[in-house]
Specification:
- The complex is a heterodimer of chains A (113) and B (114).
- In chain A, 0% of the residues lie in helices and 53% in strands.
- Chain A is built from no helices and eleven strands.
- With 113 residues, chain A is an all-beta fold.
- In chain A, the strands form two sheets. In chain A, strands 2, 4, 5, 9, 10 and 11 form a six-stranded mixed sheet that branches. Chain A has a five-stranded antiparallel sheet with strand order 1-3-8-7-6, with no helix packed on it.
- In chain A, a hairpin with a 2-residue loop joins strand 6 (55-58) and strand 7.
- Chain B has 114 residues and is mainly β.
- Helices cover 0% and strands 48% of the residues of chain B.
- Chain B has no helices and eleven strands.
- Chain B has strands spanning 5-7, 10-13, 19-24, 31-37, 44-50, 53-56, 65-68, 75-79, 88-95, 104-105, 109-113.
- At the A-B interface, strand 5, strand 9 and strand 10 of A face strand 5, strand 9 and strand 10 of B.
Chain lengths: 113, 114
């Protein structure tokens, strides 16, 4: 089952607003990633984080790897209509093989123009 | 194409039937993964291949599910005696071994079991 708690479950915002979502776990992860999924598509990687405390940006997106290794957040600044979609956090644990990822349940983002 | 290709995009079958789902990964990617996504949920891990061998199949729900990757490229997920609870989107992803966790997903195969 899922081990990542992602919140909020859904968000309704106005275009131009900033957005913040986060992910927590009872387990330690050595990698945190954020993906976005559009309807009928597979998830697309937005940001990957590899070190505790790391803060990484990708355009209007900023994500951080929590110091405890048990959480991460994603911020989107100045939202635009194409930001609509489902955002998933994902983590990789040291003790699991290869690049097996555990996903959160997603945050559904709606942006009103 | 340059991305991960999955076929069929949609499959409707009857309970008890056998189903095969195919994945063609990005050329040169040695790692291949199958995930299952139910409505309103995040993807759940099924199986991971490194080359031709299944490095981790601990996510397969039961022995009705099996996957192969005989030549280290294309993979087939096989489901025997399908049940209604198998209905979901089956996602395939591939990655280079260099950047663990950075998976490239296909569009998925939507399976509906009636």
């Amino acid at each position: 089952g899922q081990q990542l708690n992602q919140s909020p479950q859904s968000m309704f915002i106005q275009e131009g607003e900033d957005v913040s979502m986060n992910c927590t776990s009872s387990s330690i992860f050595n990698t945190w990633l954020w993906y976005k999924q559009d309807p009928g598509e597979g998830p697309v990687l937005l940001i990957a984080l590899y070190k505790a405390g790391e803060l990484t940006s990708n355009g209007r997106l900023t994500a951080q790897f929590g110091i405890t290794r048990k959480d991460s957040f994603l911020n989107i600044s100045a939202s635009i209509p194409s930001d609509v979609g489902i955002y998933f956090c994902a983590g990789q644990r040291i003790e699991t093989s290869g690049s097996r990822l555990t996903f959160g349940e997603g945050t559904q983002l709606t942006v009103n123009p | 194409g340059a991305g991960v290709s999955q076929t069929p995009s949609n499959k409707v079958t009857e309970k008890g039937k056998y189903v095969e789902l195919r994945c063609d990964p990005i050329s040169g990617h040695t790692a291949l993964y199958w995930y299952r996504q139910s409505l309103g949920q995040g993807p759940e891990f099924l199986i991971y291949f490194q080359g031709t061998g299944a490095a981790d199949d601990s996510g397969l729900p039961n022995d009705r599910f099996f996957a192969v990757r005989p030549e280290g490229s294309v993979s087939t997920l096989k489901i025997q005696r399908t049940e209604r609870g198998d209905s979901a989107v089956y996602l395939c992803a591939s990655s280079s071994s260099v950047r663990g966790g950075e998976l490239f997903f296909g569009e998925g195969s939507r399976l509906t079991v009636l």
